[in-house]
Amino acid sequence: MLGGVCLHTGTIPSKTLREAILHLGGVRHRSFYGKGYSVKENVSFKDLTSRVTTVIQKQKDTVAVQLRRNGIRVVNGHATFEEPHKIKIVDDQDQTSFLTADKILIACGTRPARDPNIHFDGKYIVDSDQLLNLEEMPHNVIVVGAGVIGLEYASMLSTLRNIEVTVIDQRPILLDFADREMIDILTFHMRDYRTKFRLGEKVKNVYLDEKKRVVATLESGKRVIGDVLLYAVGRQCNTDQLMLKNAGLEADKRGKLSVNERFQTHIPHIYAAGDVIGFPALASASMTQGRIAACDMFGAPISDSQSDPNLLPYGIYTIPEISLVGKNEQQLTSEAVPYEYGVARYSDLAKGMMLGDETGGLLKILFHRETLKVLGVHCIGESATEIIHIGQSAIALGLTIDYFGNYVFNSPTFSEAYQMAAIDGLRKI
Fold first, then answer.
1. What is the pLDDT of residues 242-263, one digit of tens each?
2. What is the pTM of this model?
3. Cis peptide before 13 (omega within 30 of 0)
C-alpha cells in the first residue's frame, strides 16, 4: 500500500472530500446567492467519492514514479521482525522471504482505534476508514470524538445541506493546543450550520434500534439518535503487527514508540517516524521526521530548524480551516512572556469580500512587546493553511513584526492580512 494511511484512507482522501463538498455544496458562493445555494441538488456520496478515487490514483502513480526514479526497491508483503537486523516478509501468495539491514526505519502508520464494546458494521456505525464507503447520504450524523479527525469530518458533513451533526467528546474543551479565539470562531460557524456539541459527555453504549437508527447512550443519561455514527476517538499504531519483541523493542498501550531528537529508538540502528511516535501525527511532519532519520543513519548534515517543534505548522482542515505556528496566547501567558498581538479580519480584506467570506476569517500575530519578535501566528478562514508559512518563515528567521508593516504585499490577497495585523499590533505599543 504505497503512500500508507496518508494516501489511502487519511490525509489525501479526507482533504479531497473537503474540496468536493466545498465545490458541489456551493459553500464559497453562499454569501452571494443565499444559504440554500449549491452547485448540485441532492449531492450523493458517490458524487463526492468519485473525485477522491481520481486523486488517490494520481497520487499513487506519482509515488511509484518517485520511488523508481530514486532507485528504491519495493517489496510487497507483511513484514515482521525476525531478529534486530532481520525482517521476515510474507506476500499475498504466502511466500516467505527475508531482508537484512544495517539500519531500519519503522513507519508503519496507524489505524482507527475502536471501542471493543461497539459493533462496527460499516453501514450505520463506522470509523474514519469506513466513512467514505457509505452508499447513502445520512440526514443525521453522530460524531464521537472531537479531535482533529472528528471535527474535520463533522464540519464537512454539516456544511452539506440537510445534514445535522452532533459531536460528542468527554473533554470539556476542543483542541486545547489551538488558540481559543480560533476555536470559538470554528464552533460558532459549525453551530450556525446546525452542529450540536455534547462536551464533557462520555458514551456508555451504542446500538441500533428497531428502526435501524443508531442510538448513543451517554453516562449522563442522555440519548443521541442518528442515521450514522462516526467513531473518531484516537488511533492505534500498527506496531502490534511487527513482532517488536524480536527486535528488543516495546511499544506503549497505543502502540507508540519512544524516540530521541533524531528519531532513534533505544535500539541504536532502529529508527521510527510518523504516526507511530505519536503527536503531532501529521503527514507533513512525518515526511520531515523520516528525512531527519535518514540523514542521521548515513551521517548527512541536519539543520536544527528541521526538528524545532516551534517551527512546525499545524493545518486543521475543518470548514473553515485553521492553521497555526509558534506559541499561542495560553502558552505565553503561562510562561509570563510580555506579548501583544495584532489582528486582521477577512471581512476587512478586499480578497475576503471578493470570495464572500462569511466564516469570521481572522489572522492573529503574537509578538514580544519589548523586542517585537514574532512569537506565533494563528489563522482561521480560506487559505489559512497556505498563508501560515509566511509566519513560519518570520519565526524561523527571528523577524520582528514591523517587517510585515514595512514591506509591500500583493493586493488583493489573503497574505496582506499580515500587513494589516502588523499595523494593528504596532498601534498597541
1. 999 999 999 998 899 999 999 9
2. 0.93
3. no
